[in-house]
């Protein structure tokens, strides 16, 4: 029971956020409603490369590129930053005292849990020109920092709700695709700052009661397959606007009692990029490379360089090898896609400061899921 309590406190502490310290740089993370382990391994490119659930909060037009019809059984994502993992080990070894937290001062602490279930993807809906997808997305993310004074400001975000996407192929050779996603999410976010002493004494529960609300929003997207043939590659342009209505999560009411504030928003963002693909490259049955600029509008006061993503993916039999650059930090990943089961692993760096190179949060992610 003692270890269980320590573990609970460690996981909860990973939910700390945006706290300012005299000796540490304040963090200003980009908050996203959804993350993909596949995309994270390839520099977080997704608007010209996304498939299946990656497009519910990415580029809805990419649903036309799903390789098959699919019914998604539970798919889980678990992710944690290196500092969070390190502090969890310290807590378990030190017995949970206040001194256990000293190594975390000034370091970014992050974690994420995500589940897709159920979800259905139909690549030829009504006619061959239409595609349809629907899924229920549940997620909880935490990112933060412990100040030198022992105060923490929680920034935990919990989302749950359905997403529905409709996309259509246009023009000869299906070169143009357009799509729209409607997602209704209930969001609850944490509230006021509290001290570590309050946390260890169990008096911080009121700080976790922040804002809540139910919101309806839309994503719009398009892709275009060019006739360029440089190097034997096929090229795709993609662009999307996420959260067209502003992502405030308050336009449908529904609040939790005691959580009466406004939830943390996901601002409207513009995203665009270019990808290139080639079949049968060397020993790989397919290879792609993409350059994208994302989160324009969801990068408040941040450097433009935080929006740059570069990634590659090469497929060899049932294995996908990935690499890239996310906001200037290296990323890498592996994917295994079997008939009824898939698993993806990734490591990537996320910028916690306003400028690239300020403070890296090195994260490790795993997803696994079943499908028919």
Task: Give your account of this protein's structure.
The chain is mainly beta and 372 residues long. It has a single domain, classed as Porin (Beta Barrel). The protein contains four helices and 17 strands. The strands form two sheets. A 14-stranded antiparallel barrel has the order 2-3-4-6-7-9-10-11-12-13-14-15-16-17. Strands 1-5-8 form a three-stranded antiparallel sheet. A hairpin with a 7-residue loop joins strand 3 (108-122) and strand 4 (130-145). The longest helix has 13 residues, at 82-94. The radius of gyration is 21 Å and the shape is globular.
How are the SSEs placed, and which strands pair?
Elements: H1 2-13, E1 16-17, H2 37-41, E2 70-81, H3 82-94, E3 108-122, E4 130-145, E5 151-154, E6 156-170, E7 176-189, E8 194-195, H4 196-200, E9 211-225, E10 234-242, E11 269-281, E12 284-296, E13 308-316, E14 319-326, E15 329-337, E16 341-351, E17 360-371
Antiparallel strand pairs: 1-5, 2-3, 2-17, 3-4, 4-6, 5-8, 6-7, 7-9, 9-10, 10-11, 11-12, 12-13, 13-14, 14-15, 15-16, 16-17
Total number of distinct structural domains: 1
N to C succession of SSEs: HEHEHEEEEEEHEEEEEEEEE
> What is the makeup of the main sheet?
14 strands, antiparallel, barrel
Please bin the fraction of helical residues.
under 10%
Poorly predicted parts: 1-23
CATH fold title: Porin
Mean pLDDT: 87
Number of helices: 4
For the secondary structure, the number of strands is 17
Q: Helix- and strand-based class?
A: mainly beta
Spatial order of strands in the largest sheet: 2-3-4-6-7-9-10-11-12-13-14-15-16-17
Broad shape: globular
CATH top-level class: Mainly Beta
CATH architecture: Beta Barrel
Q: Per DSSP, what share of the residues sits in E-state strands of 2 or more residues? A: over 45%
User: Gap between N and C termini, in Å?
Assistant: 39 Å
State Rg: 21 Å
């Amino acid at each position: 029971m003692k270890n269980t309590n320590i573990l609970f406190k460690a996981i909860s502490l990973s939910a700390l956020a945006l706290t300012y310290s005299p000796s540490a740089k304040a963090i200003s993370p980009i908050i996203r409603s959804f993350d993909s382990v596949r995309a994270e391994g390839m520099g977080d490119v997704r608007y010209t490369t996304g498939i299946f659930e990656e497009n519910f909060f990415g580029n809805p037009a990419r649903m036309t590129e799903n390789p098959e019809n699919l019914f998604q059984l539970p798919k889980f994502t678990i992710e944690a930053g290196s500092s969070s993992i390190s502090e969890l080990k310290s807590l378990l070894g030190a017995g949970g005292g206040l001194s256990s937290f000293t190594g975390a001062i000034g370091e970014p602490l992050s974690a994420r849990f995500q589940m897709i279930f159920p979800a259905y993807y139909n690549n030829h809906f009504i006619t061959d020109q239409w595609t349809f997808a629907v899924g229920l997305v549940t997620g909880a993310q935490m990112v933060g920092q412990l100040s030198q004074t022992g105060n923490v400001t929680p920034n935990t975000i919990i989302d749950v709700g359905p997403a529905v996407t409709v996309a259509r192929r246009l023009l000869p050779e299906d070169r143009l695709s357009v799509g729209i996603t409607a997602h209704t999410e209930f969001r609850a976010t944490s509230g006021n700052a509290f001290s570590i002493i309050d946390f260890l004494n169990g008096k911080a529960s009121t700080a976790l009661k922040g804002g809540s609300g139910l919101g309806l929003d839309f994503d719009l997207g398009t892709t275009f397959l060019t006739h360029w043939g440089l190097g034997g590659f096929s090229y795709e342009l993609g662009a999307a606007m996420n959260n067209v209505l502003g992502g405030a999560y308050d336009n449908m009411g529904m609040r939790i009692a005691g959580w009466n504030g406004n939830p943390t928003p996901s601002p409207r963002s513009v995203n665009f990029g270019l990808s290139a693909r080639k079949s049968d490259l060397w020993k790989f049955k397919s290879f792609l490379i993409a350059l994208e600029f994302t989160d324009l509008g969801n990068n408040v006061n941040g450097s433009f360089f935080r929006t740059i993503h570069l990634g590659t993916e090469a497929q060899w039999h049932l294995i996908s090898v990935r690499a890239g650059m996310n906001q200037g930090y290296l990323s890498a990943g592996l994917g295994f896609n079997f008939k009824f089961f898939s698993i993806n692993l990734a490591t990537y760096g996320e910028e916690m400061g306003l400028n690239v190179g300020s403070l890296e949060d090195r994260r490790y992610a795993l997803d696994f899921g079943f499908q028919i």
